TrEMBL record:
SUPFAM superfamilies: NAD(P)-binding Rossmann-fold domains (SSF51735). It holds the Pfam family NAD_binding_10. This is NAD(P)H-binding protein. Coiled coil: none annotated.
């Protein structure tokens, strides 16, 4: 497939980039600073662009079979998530790209008690603004007329390799026998590219964890 990735310089974005290339997809990575992406591959095309600019999104997603966003704002700039969501929806709509897949946050997933993770007493206060921004951005995608898919990770996202031994869910937080919800970036990337190649959660959200 011919795909575009935004946020390819981040930890999750790099994992997605490598997973997509390993499966022989043609990848355009859109970054603000091309010097920050050192990955080299014959099927990788690195271009300068801005996820916050709908015209830039349109330019770099035209004719693509899928558009992936692993964009994450800097601490203190959480509101940019909403700006990015609006820009992606508008730019992808203009370009006519076939699908939009977004890696978001875990905070809006429901616990076994039916409460959003971000609303539980133990949720870190310093992370709440980012979780709230992700939840609000999710609403923007869910109200769009695109073929979108939103992937919420486990509550603990660890930089690590792909094992392929993860579970898939929908709106509830997945935990192991000790009540821990976690996944590696490698497996999160695998879950996303699996969904891109074999669509199941079109116009819906899903989650992946061990």
């Amino acid at each position: 497939m011919n795909i575009t990735i935004f946020g390819a310089t981040g930890t999750v974005g790099q994992a997605i980039l490598r997973e997509a290339l390993s499966r022989e997809h043609e990848v355009t990575a859109v970054v603000r600073d091309v010097s920050k992406l050192t990955e080299k591959h014959e099927r990788l095309h690195v271009v300068q662009g801005d996820i916050l600019d709908p015209a830039s999104v349109e330019e770099h997603t035209r004719g693509r079979e899928a558009v992936i966003s692993a964009y994450g704002p800097k601490f203190g700039s959480e509101a940019e998530l909403l700006e990015a969501a609006r820009s992606l929806v508008e730019g992808v709509r203009r370009s006519g790209a076939e699908r939009l897949l977004v890696v978001g946050g875990a905070g809006s997933l429901l616990t076994d008690e039916g409460v959003r993770l971000m609303d539980t007493p133990s949720f870190p206060a310093e992370v709440y603004p980012l979780a709230k921004a992700h939840a609000d951005a999710y609403e923007i995608y869910s109200q769009s007329d695109l073929e979108w898919t939103y992937l919420s990770p486990a509550s603990v996202l660890e930089d690590g390799r792909r094992s392929g031994n993860f579970r898939i869910g929908i709106d509830r937080l997945i935990t192991d026998e000790l009540g821990v919800s976690r996944i590696t970036t490698g497996d999160l990337a695998a879950a996303l590219i699996d969904e891109m190649e074999d669509p199941y959660f079109v116009s819906s959200r899903f989650t992946a964890a061990y």
